[in-house]
Amino acid sequence: MKKKLLIIGKNSFISININNYLKKDLIIKSVSFVSFLSLKLEYLKKFDFIVNCSINKNYINKKYYIKDDLDVIIADKIKNLLCTFVFFSTRKIYDVNDNILETSFLKPKCNYSKNKLKTETLLKKILKDKVLILRLSNLIGIRSKKNLKSKRHNIFIDHFFKNIKKNIVTDNKKVYKDFISIKQFTTIFKKLISCSAKGTFNVSIGKKVYLNNVINWLNYYNSRDIKLQKPLNNYNKDCFYLNNKKLEKKIGFKVNISDLKKDCMEISKKHFNK
């Protein structure tokens, strides 16, 4: 039997891609956060998972204020239901390091990551074990026109396309991070939903991915020459990657760099061969 999902934040980058990739495998209903607030509990009972993709811009940029925390508001409403709540957290709650485990030292530095960690704690208190927390690494995928209008903050690929218009990219040959394509993410997400997963998982490639490689893959179908420039003094040179063994063991699926490369080149083809 197909799992039933209610996604809150219907125009977000993640929700649009979940719909696009998984609408044949899952029963999905997407609503805005405002619409969710008016839904009756009797209606919400029919869903196996409630997934929040909406966010308040104050939550991203400012110090924690509970009225800006949409996830806690949702959790308070559904706390007496049997459904599992899916919360998208961030790898930024960790200290910068290699092979970061879910149990590794937490050191959020910006308001966004501090707020995400605060929300994780509150959700566990409100929902007990009825929560699936996904600590996401850098997602790569093309935003839809709808998502561009509702975009709250930039991700790596946004910076790439912005710089490529100027025919300039930063030379990152010594910098590596952890990435995952939106296509890989939706595959992982489907498997987690299918096995009714709960708890906290790193969602990532789980290996060093050098930025210059990602740039080359994304730029593969660009016919114009680009110039490499030296990183500015304030450029983020932090290197890290997450350990995703807990995730792989849970879903029986291994995430590969070769698939990331393939997905990045598909993105390049779509973008430059319009």
How would you characterize this protein structure?
It is a single chain. By secondary structure, the protein is an alpha/beta fold. It has a single domain, classed as 3-Layer(aba) Sandwich (Rossmann fold), CATH 3.40.50. It is built from twelve helices and twelve strands. The chain has a six-stranded parallel beta sheet, with helices on both faces. The chain has a two-stranded parallel sheet with strand order 6-9. Strands 7-12 form a two-stranded parallel sheet. Helix 1 links the parallel strand 1 (4-8) and strand 2 (27-31). Helix 1 (13-22) packs across helix 9, helix 5 packs parallel to helix 6 (111-127) and helix 10 packs across helix 12. It is globular, with a radius of gyration of 19 Å. The mean pLDDT is 92.
Brief description of this entry?
The protein has 274 residues and is of the alpha/beta class. Helices cover 40% and strands 18% of the residues.
Give the helix tally. Answer: 12
Q: What structural class do you assign from the helix and strand content?
A: alpha/beta
**Helical percentage:** 25-40%
Shape: globular
Radius of gyration: 19 Å
Strand tally is: 12
Level-2 CATH architecture: 3-Layer(aba) Sandwich
CATH superfamily (homologous) name: NAD(P)-binding Rossmann-like Domain
Termini separation comes to 39 Å
Q: Can you write the helix and strand succession as a string? A: EHEHHEHHEHEEHHEEEHEEHEHH
As laid out across the biggest beta sheet, the strand order is 2-1-3-4-5-10
Largest beta-sheet characterization: 6 strands, parallel
Per the CATH scheme, the topology name is Rossmann fold
Question: Into which percentage range does the β-strand content fall?
Answer: 15-25%
CATH class: Alpha Beta
- Flag low-confidence runs: none
Average of pLDDT: 92
Total discrete domains: 1
